């Protein structure tokens, strides 16, 4: 039973990590680049966008490195995913949430929480 739980957790986490990396690389980072391009004439108006956007890239790369180093023993993998990879996912998520608040509404590539919660009202 314990092995089944570890396997279920590892499978779920593997899917979530791969999905997060894919969403960041194919949606978030291109949107960040588009948003930054709007500030080339007045870079001081961009605020902390560059720091946040570059932080997403740096922390996502770190997530990929950590994910690639996961052990191949099921129990050790589960512990590693929980204690090492999951906190890194939270770091990436925090920066992506900041980016969502910075970029122009139409550029953000995924539905926001607000969109999902209130979309049935329109």
Distance between the termini: 47 Å
User: How much helix is in the residues?
Assistant: over 70%
Radius of gyration: 17 Å
**Unreliable sequence segments:** none
Largest sheet: none
Measured by DSSP, the beta-strand proportion falls in under 5%
- Shape field: elongated
Structural class: mainly alpha
**H and E order:** HHHH
Number of strands: 0
Number of helices: 4
Q: Could you tell me the mean pLDDT?
A: 94
Write up what this structure looks like:
The protein is mainly alpha-helical and 122 residues long. Helix content is 75%, strand content 0%. It is built from four helices and no strands. α1 packs antiparallel against α2 (49-68). The radius of gyration is 17 Å and the shape is elongated. The relative contact order is 0.16.
Descriptive key words:
single chain; 122 residues; mainly alpha; 4 helices; 75% helix; 0% strand; elongated
């Amino acid at each position: 039973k314990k092995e089944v739980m570890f396997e279920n957790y590892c499978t779920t986490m593997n899917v979530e990590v791969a999905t997060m990396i894919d969403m960041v690389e194919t949606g978030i980072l291109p949107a960040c680049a588009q948003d930054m391009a709007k500030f080339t004439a007045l870079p001081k108006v961009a605020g902390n966008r560059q720091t946040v956007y570059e932080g997403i890239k740096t922390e996502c790369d770190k997530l990929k490195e950590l994910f690639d180093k996961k052990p191949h023993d099921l129990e050790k993998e589960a512990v590693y995913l929980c204690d090492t990879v999951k906190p890194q996912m939270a770091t990436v998520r925090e920066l992506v949430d900041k980016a969502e608040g910075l970029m122009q509404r139409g550029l953000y590539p995924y539905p926001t929480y607000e969109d999902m919660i209130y979309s049935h009202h329109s």
